[in-house]
């Protein structure tokens, strides 16, 4: 009984959320500090992120906020979800210019790989046949987004277009990061829904749990790399 209790305690400790971004062996010195190991971690993280996002799409229970917008635009323009995601990311990056935010290699990789991997996931993952399966796909997708985020964030090669926009507005306006994020995500979600993007239980689950998923994944990365 004591062994089982200790085992459970060890698992919970291993999955304990991390409050900061850990310093990893692959962390870059600057945003264009590219190496083979760093690229593998970065590309792998972005691929996992995009595939996780696509699981929410295929769950048929509601998408992540930015994918709600991408799906709405894809329907209106009759283009693929991947191209729609790519276009939105490129436009968001242009908004960095007046805010004087500087992209890194990871920023550009984020635009290309996440768009491609979302489209890949939509192509290879079947749609959920029922609500229960859809919720299971949401759960796996949110976990994958957390893992993917932790991997690419710890590379230190620059934020994604959306995160960079959030931090740039925060720095220029003085408004709290949480409020800036809420304003951006809320606006994107409403616009996407108006254009025909799917919202639902999956959207709510993503909003509630994705932050915790990223924190848990950062904690796992921190503990694995500290050994």
From TrEMBL:
Any matching Pfam family: DUF6198
The entry's keywords: Membrane, Transmembrane, Transmembrane helix
Transmembrane segments: 39-59, 79-97, 104-125, 131-159, 180-199, 205-224
InterPro entries given in the database record: YczE/YyaS-like
Name of the protein described by the UniProt record: Unannotated protein
Organism: freshwater metagenome
Species classification: unclassified sequences, metagenomes, ecological metagenomes
């Amino acid at each position: 009984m004591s062994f089982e209790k200790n085992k459970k305690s060890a698992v919970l400790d291993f999955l304990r959320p991390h409050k900061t971004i850990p310093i990893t062996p692959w962390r870059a010195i600057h945003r264009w500090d590219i190496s083979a190991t760093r690229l593998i971690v970065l590309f792998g993280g972005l691929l996992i992120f995009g595939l996780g996002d696509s699981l929410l799409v295929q769950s048929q229970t509601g998408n992540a906020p930015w994918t709600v917008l991408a799906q709405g635009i894809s329907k209106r323009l009759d283009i693929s979800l991947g191209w729609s995601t790519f276009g939105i990311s490129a436009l968001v990056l242009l908004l960095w210019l007046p805010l004087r935010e500087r992209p890194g290699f990871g920023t550009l990789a984020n635009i290309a790989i996440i768009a491609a991997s979302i489209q890949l996931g939509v192509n290879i993952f079947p749609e959920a046949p029922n609500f229960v399966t859809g919720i299971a796909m949401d759960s796996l997708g949110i976990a994958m987004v957390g893992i993917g985020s932790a991997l690419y964030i710890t590379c230190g090669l620059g934020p994604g277009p959306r995160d960079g926009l959030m931090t740039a507005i925060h720095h220029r306006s003085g408004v709290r990061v949480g409020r800036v994020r809420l304003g951006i995500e809320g606006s994107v979600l409403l616009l996407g829904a108006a254009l025909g993007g799917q919202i639902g239980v999956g959207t709510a689950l993503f909003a509630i749990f994705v932050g915790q998923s990223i924190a848990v994944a950062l904690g796992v990365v921190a503990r694995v790399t500290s050994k």
